[in-house]
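Lay summary. Proteins are chains of building blocks that fold into shapes, and those shapes determine what they do. In this project we predict the shape from the chain. Here is one chain we studied, written as its sequence of building blocks.
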Amino acid sequence: MSIRTKRKRKFSSSFKDCLNGFKYINTNEDNFKREIFLGIIALLLSYILKVSKIEFIIVIIMIALVLVCEVINTTVEKIVDLICPNYNKLAGEIKDIAAFAVLLMCIFALIIGAIIFIPKIIILLGGI
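And here is the predicted shape, written in a compact code that computers can read:
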């Protein structure tokens, strides 16, 4: 096994690789597209409902966490597929657990969104 030496890379090269990763995720992962869409809706709601700065920051953080979880999930799935190209029960369980991490993050984002948005929607509709 040969040892690969790490050479210093230019920032522009690293940045190009990052953009390639984004292009791959955006092209191949439908869930990522859905999460981006829902994130945009959350940002629009934040604007329409005039949330406070701290609430807006929380909304942005939750959107980022969901998207990052999705990217990590895709990475885990690709690594598992590379290591184990044929069906393997343990490989399937690993992929399921990574997918559950995304679902769990989405559930928490939904709960936090409800805490932030529902009271403002009730006020907007004239209270209860």
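What the prediction tells us: The radius of gyration is 19 Å.
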